[in-house]
Design brief:
By secondary structure, the protein is α+β, with helices and mostly antiparallel strands. It has a domain of 139 residues: N-terminal domain of TfIIb (Single Sheet), CATH 2.20.25.90. 21% of the residues lie in helices and 19% in strands. The protein is built from eight helices and twelve strands. A five-stranded mixed beta sheet has the order 2-1-5-3-4, with helices on both faces. Strands 10-11-12 form a three-stranded antiparallel beta sheet. A two-stranded antiparallel ribbon has the order 6-9. A hairpin with a 6-residue loop joins strand 3 and strand 4. The radius of gyration is 21 Å and the shape is globular.
Amino acid sequence: MASGVFVGLPRRMVTVTIDGVDVQATEGTTILEACRGLSIDTPTLCQLENLTPVNVCRACVVEVEGSRVLVPACSRKVEAGMKVLTDSERVRHSRRMVLEMLASSVDMSLCGPQVRGWMTQYGAQPQRFGPGAATVAQPVKIDNDLYVRDYSRCILCYKCVEACGVDAQNTFAIGVAGRGFDAHIATEFTVALPESACVYCGNCIGVCPTGALMFKSEYDMRQAGTWDESQQTVTETVCPYCGVGCMLELHVQDNSIVKVTSPLDHSVTAGHLCVKGRFGFEFVQSRKRSE
């Protein structure tokens, strides 16, 4: 019996039709990947390249011929002969409703320009649900010096749970507690973060799309009115703490590092870091010396 690494059979190419255009896609890829290959802008809130799709936000749904319901493009695999519509009235209506219901119940003001662009593109009007529609108003949780949790901004995308779990850290410090309208992100037994299994890798912050999880440094600056991304530069460097070779993105404002991220497409980190890489930047600008 031959030894060595087993090489699987090559995957075949299949032809699918997306918005009337025939496209070749590798068997096993998702509809979302095929759409991006055609430069079709498909909104995603719970999907990220370095995480397992969990299909909870439903913002990426598309219409597939023969399917009774709209399907999530982020997880549905392409099939030979599949016909997909990404911009039908049914799709646009569904996406508009998803964005409206999320924005009417949580504070999405810190979402990036891409999300705000989708709100405009699909004509989302969350205000039509009325000012009393918010369901998750609650105080900000500040129980450590590294990051804060503002669950009034949480859309339950599950990204933080995935990053804390099998997709990255395997710490399982946070998860989804409650059911239905009572579902929320929490530590085990809802203990304070320092008393939980959290190892402060900050990978949950790195994947959060709404600012529900945020660097303490960024939060303090936002509270003081000094946070200004237009005045920030991003410099890539290699983490100095060990020999793994993790890539860091240093976000600098007023000659001070204000937060650290990592590229999603980096072969070593895939966007994830440890506590030293994510939060160990403060020594750079520390001027304190021991007596």
